[in-house]
């Protein structure tokens, strides 16, 4: 047998076990602490039912690091969530072929901001419309506005001023920042472009019928509706508008982002702003 296994490049002990049918069968894996970890996972999933195992694992690591406890592996979280039946259903829909191969993300913050709008219907039939702007590097929501009427150019212009003041603490950006949006009338209006230039913002617009060109904003729309609108009570427009500030803060402070190493936008900003340690 040794000559055969050497020629095949396999372990002799493995072949011997298979011949004798004495190879032990592996049962479900269990580890010490699984019961307590299942309780922690259940608590997080109950609070955030739209999160998959990677984001749940990121929240667990964050909590355990703050408490000085050992970290937890994402594969272990996957195993326990699968055992508890808490995994999200796989996406089975067909996607259109990607038509845009440009790069929306930037290598540092305050190089390009992207903006878009969304709307959702409350339980009583009222419609809430939201416009927002986020940074294309750290993904932080810098500014936003909400209304039950139509979004206006004045609201976009106020949001531009708010964003510049929030990021730079000044009435004008110290350097040119791109402002990426679609070709909606609220963005291409002459007054909006004039205000943008006065704020040292550089308006740039996506090609027609190419939402991929503003894919980062489109991705936030999906996240906002999935993780906040659909899982929170919104009986009326007034109730929803009052909740939006909390949702935006939660996204900026808590929501783990895969492109940021499963850190939240502000957690990522704090990590990037720390001075590098000099080697001794």
From TrEMBL:
InterPro entries: HTH-like_dom, Integrase_cat-core, RNaseH-like_sf, RNaseH_sf, Transpos_IS3. PROSITE patterns: INTEGRASE. NCBIfam families: transpos_IS3. This is Transposase InsO family protein. It comes from the Bacteria. GO terms for biological process: DNA integration. One of its GO terms (molecular function) is nucleic acid binding. Residues 105-273 form the Integrase catalytic domain.
């Amino acid at each position: 047998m040794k000559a055969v296994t050497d020629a095949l490049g396999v372990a002799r002990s493995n072949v011997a076990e298979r011949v004798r049918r004495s190879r032990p069968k592996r049962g479900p894996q269990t580890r010490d602490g699984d019961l307590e970890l299942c309780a922690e996972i259940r608590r997080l999933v109950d609070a955030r039912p739209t999160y998959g195992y990677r984001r749940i694992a990121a929240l667990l690591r964050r909590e355990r690091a703050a408490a000085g406890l050992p970290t937890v592996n994402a594969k272990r979280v996957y195993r326990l969530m699968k055992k508890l039946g808490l995994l999200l259903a796989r996406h089975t829909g067909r996607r259109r072929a990607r038509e845009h191969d440009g790069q929306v993300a930037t290598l540092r913050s305050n190089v390009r901001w992207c903006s878009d709008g969304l709307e959702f219907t409350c339980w009583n039939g009222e419609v809430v419309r939201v416009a927002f702007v986020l940074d294309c590097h750290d993904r932080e929501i810098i500014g936003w506005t909400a209304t039950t009427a139509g979004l206006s150019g004045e609201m976009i212009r106020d949001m531009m001023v708010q964003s510049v003041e929030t990021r730079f603490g000044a009435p004008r950006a110290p350097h040119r920042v791109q402002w990426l949006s679609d070709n909606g009338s609220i963005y291409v209006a002459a007054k909006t472009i004039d205000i943008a230039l006065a704020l040292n913002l550089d308006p740039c617009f996506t090609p027609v019928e190419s939402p991929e060109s503003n894919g980062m904003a489109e991705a936030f729309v999906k996240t906002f509706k999935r993780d906040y609108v659909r899982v929170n009570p919104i009986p009326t427009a007034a109730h929803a508008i009052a909740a939006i500030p909390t949702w935006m803060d939660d996204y900026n402070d808590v929501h783990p982002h895969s492109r940021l190493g499963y850190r939240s936008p502000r957690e990522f900003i704090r990590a990037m702003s720390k001075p590098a340690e000099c080697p001794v």
